[in-house]
Amino acid sequence: MIPDWIVLAILTIVTASTPLVFAAIGEVVVEKAGVLNLGIEGMMVMGAISAFAVGVMTEDATLAILAGAIAGAALALIFGVLTLYLMANHVATGLALTLFGLGLSALIGHSYVGKTYPGLPRLDIPGLSDIPVIGPLLFGHDILVYLSILSVILVTWVLTKTRWGLLIRGVGENHDAAHSIGYSVNLIRLACVLFGGAMAGLGGAYLSLAHTPLWVENMTAGRGWIALALVVFGSWRPWRTFFGAYLFGGITIVQLHAQGFGVAIPSQIMSMLPYLATVIVLVFISRDSSRARLSAPACLGRNFHASG
Amino acid sequence: MKFMKKLITTSAALMAAAAMLATGPANATDPLKIGFIYVGPIGDHGWSYQHNVGRLEIEQAFGSKVKTSYVETVPEGADAQRVIRRLASSGHGLIFTTSFGYMNPTIKVAKRFPKVHFEHATGFKRSKNVATYSARFYEGRHVVGLIAGKMTKTNILGYVASFPIPEVVRGINATIIAARSVNPKIKIKVIWVSSWFDPGKEADAAKAMIDQGADIIMQHTDSPAPLQVAQKRGVWAVGQASDMAAFGPKAQLTSIIDNWGPYYVARAKAALDGNWKSGDVWGGFKSGMVQLAPYNKAIPADVVAMAEKARKSIINGSVHAFQGPIKDQSGKIVVPAGKRASDGMLLGMNFYVEGVDGSLPK
Q: What is the pLDDT of residue B19?
């Protein structure tokens, strides 16, 4: 029989990985369109404070989640205007917006420190959730977890099976060609950037509403950067990125459990494990260097200048 | 032309002289500037929050005679040195550096500013103008350990620990010694999160230990996240540094409160009166530096009575948290029967006592 703690550990892994899934999936779409958004961390933390503030004020989970997404998208709008219309450098703008987001969220959040939020309710279907093992694993999560999985399915379907997805990929691979056929490159990119920002905001909202329902400065603690790395890890493919997020979250939780069991490896090495595992898997995946180079969108990070 | 030149140079000289007089030595009517450096945000509702409470007590006690300022979330290391130096060079006469990792930066800056008084929390390096102070948190851990020993049903305690420095190890050891004295079957799990303040990681660590059967969560980290997790999962927890009951009203058995106010007010007074001297203060229950939050109403009356008896006994000296015989993990006797661990041993404690599973990271 599966010991109790394994089921509980998997539930914790889901909680730890969901913010990464949101942020990384959003960034997959953004980068597929050719934009390199380094501002994810800022968008996540703005999403976190907005969701928490609205949650505390209105006690309405739906409004809080929406607020998180809107806040992330708002910061992404600034990013979009700067990089797509004012031709600012993607990398510099993204970094600047991360710092801006961290500072602004700390400012807004000052009066919310010490407040509590009851947390998101877990799904509780009377018959299904009680099945041992499978019940809680499949039917016992909160709404944002299901939303994260839904978003991966949606993004995969849109990118591979719809015309929109084709446009997005086209704009990311060869923006001049897309422009010459008559599509507005910057408009498509802006839409993707807004989507990416909203997803990052949702990831942040998950942190402050479900993972640890409180607000402290910088509560994202670098998860935005990890999400960025996971996009590359996943070769810009949604399901691989999802797997990467769960690998990272999984090893983080497993090392904590191992410490609890008294495993004799020094805790400092244990803390390194998630990053180590991600690097090792990445090296393994990138063995074929030509294929690895083919996965990156060709116009990633390059500003588009309409010429002719 | 020559007259204009003379006028300009004379007025410049006068202005310079006026400026020098304005920033010259503080006279009796200038308020004493007192600076604070916190390792976390004052909103951590724990360690840094309590230091800030102490700062506010100074303001209340001395009103316009002092002017306090603080810098929060200063990482330990080079950044800290920069901030301390900035405070010292901007007219602050008394500076409190409130984290162990500020020790070397404080000593270094203190050498360059011999007229400024420095107070370093939880450190062990002193100099003519650097005093150290700390609280005997382990006395609080002793009482908490007794309560935990009686309240646990699974006989497993979970401890969210930050860094393996003597202060943290003391806390773990004091807890298990007390717990085992009322409940020999009890075990303790320790997870090191390598941070003083990381709510996400602290919450995950608490979850992991609860999943492994712990029903009382304790911590030596600064956020209320472990308490929140305990509240959600329906197990007990002990708050850290401040009364965290707002985050876990049902879960919090009690909280070990750092009460820095009286010490801070006394030191500010010494600085104002001009008789500040370096030294070391290590106060516990007796001096009021360590307090306990109100006990959870769900704790049975006999357990509360036992806890109160222990606390009062520590104050009158008849009980000590590290009373021999104490064995380390290998079974060697480190404190013989009838003796108590000396302050020196406590300050340098780098070993687990018998009853702790796992090995201490170096």
A: 53
Question: Is B361 an 8 Å CB contact of chain A?
Answer: yes
Quick: pLDDT tens for A167-187: 999 999 999 888 988 889 999
- Residue A289 has what pLDDT? 67
Instruction: Find all residues with CB under 8 Å of A229, minimum gap 6, and list them.
Output: A278
Cβ distance of B212 and A256 shorter than 8 Å: no
- Residues of chain B within CATH 3.40.50.2300 domain(s) are 28-135+260-283, 137-257+291-347
Q: Does A253 touch chain B (CB under 8 A)?
A: yes
The structure tokens listed for B53 are 């409470």
Fold designation for B137-257+291-347: Rossmann fold (3.40.50)
Domain hosting A8: range is 4-295
Q: How many structural domains does chain A have?
A: 1
For chain A, give the percent of residues with pLDDT over 90.
Answer: 57
* Residue-level pLDDT at B131: 95
What is the average per-residue pLDDT within B234-253?
Answer: 90
Indicate yes or no: CB of B211 within 8 angstroms of CB of A271.
no
Question: How sure is the predictor about B17, in pLDDT bands with cuts at 50, 70 and 90?
Answer: low
Q: Does B76 touch chain A (CB under 8 A)?
A: no
Residue A307 lies in a domain: no
Residue of B nearest to A223 (CA): B200
Choose the weakest-confidence range: A12-26, A97-111, B11-25, B191-205. Answer: B11-25
- Spell out which residues of chain B touch residue A48, defining contact as CB-CB under 8 Å: none
With 70 as the cut, is the pLDDT of residue B47 above it?
yes
What would the pLDDT profile of A121-130 be if each residue is shown by its tens digit? 887 777 777 7
Q: Which of A111, A117, A259, A273 to mutate to test the interface with B (most CBs of B within 10 A)?
A: A259
Shortest CA distance from B40: residue in chain A: A217
- Give me the CATH number covering residue A91: 1.10.3470
For residue A8, is it within any domain? yes
The answer, yes or no, to whether ipTM is higher than 0.85 is no
Query: Taking CB atoms and an 8 Å cutoff, what residues of chain A touch B362?
Result: 266
* Topology at the third CATH level for domain B28-135+260-283: Rossmann fold (3.40.50)
Taking all residues of chain A, what is their mean pLDDT, rounded to a whole number? 89
* Contacts with A5 from chain B: Cβ below 8 Å: 211-213
Collect all residues of chain B within an 8 Å Cβ-Cβ radius of residue A214.
199, 223-225, 228, 247
Which among A109, A212, A260 is the nearest to B209, CB-wise? A260
